[in-house]
Amino acid sequence: MSLLSSTTALLGKELRTEFRSRELLTTTVVFILMVIVLFSFTFDPTYNESRRFGPGLLWLAFLFAASLMLQPCFLREQNNDTLSALRLSVSDPFAIFLAKLIANTLFLLFTEVLMLPVFAVLYNVPVLRVLGQLLLVFFLGSLGVSIAGTALSAISAQARMRELLLPLLLLPLLTPVLVSSTQVTIGLLDAAPYIEWKGIGFLVAFDVVFLTLLWLLGEYLLEE
Amino acid sequence: MTSRGFSPTGIRFENIEKRYGGLAALRRIRFEITPGECVALAGRNGSGKTTLLRIAARLVRPSSGELTFPSAVGPTAVAAPGASKTQPVRGKVSAGFVAHATMVYDELTAEENLLLFARLQQTPNAAARVVKLLHEVGLFDRRDSLVRTFSRGMRQRVAIARALLHEPAILLLDEPSTGLDPQGVAWLAATLRQLRDGGCTILMSLHGESEISMLATRAIRLDAGLIVADTRTGAEVRSILTFADA
Fold it and tell me: What is the ipTM of this complex?
């Protein structure tokens, strides 16, 4: 009960501060939009090329945008030492991670949903018929990115070369998520859409394993 | 139990050491603060006052030694002997902490900040407690303003209110008068006096003599991480605090 109420209070704080500053959402939306538009005009892909290479490009843009979004996640808790105040106040430190990773997943999903029509139009890819399945992949992929990213953000925020450390740790760790999400998305955008269940299974397993690890070890990541 | 609803709790430092790499921030720190005592820490910059306060708040794990919180109902929240890396310090001690940084969110209003921490601390009647504290710190009229629009002194008032939200049994203050105007210092001194008289244990770091230092019933002077003076004698307490930076 305490974990739930603490997480709810902290999630409210995360959403309120972001919608007031719009720091993370602006960065990610602009970044993804630039990548999608730039590649569309540079390569001018055909219908078949779009279906083959589009999903990879899309997920690569999501991943880099996520690394930009995750960087300030714990860093901005250091401005006024608010992380210490949170550590003193919550009975379960996992609530701090849970609120942040839910907020990050929501922000990432919001950005992805916003960018999907732009991608569909510029790359001439039909997405409406598989919208539900696409949202499921977006959710599982974004959750995986957020879980691992939130944990690594907590580690890198206390390191000396913090700006360099997060992408350095995050990108190799998330390569399997990137590959699986891309494979599932390629299947969904195929002329005869199909669901790559192996990829979905991997994403679920990744999310469960990393969430459990975060629950077990999260307290140590917050220590000074 | 006191009238404020907590068991008076002390703090016991048993051979606490803290090293940052090769630098010893604290060495052989051994003393006990009895429940309800008001102790002032003095010493030059870098003498270890902040580290000691952060260890007492259990934000920093000591490299070695033991930290206990003796109370009328027995010791609570024991730091792992030898500061084991695999044993996190668990258990809740009702401590309020005012640090150098304000520990509040700039993008939230004063009221939102206090409500957030009140909810996290599961403070009973959170909304009423927040309103009462906003009145006490003189920020009720600015309760809907974002903290980033506040002066340093106003932020410090919010920080003090945050630390007092759950009526802590132990109050840890790191130079609490930072940024406060003379009226603010007088208000803080009156509040701390009331808390001390109500049985709250206070450990605070101070620079020089002030209205707040007059509250101290004991002074401890640190130098390069070592305790070099510890007294409860009134004149010596004043002397240590007056010449802390000497």
Answer: 0.86
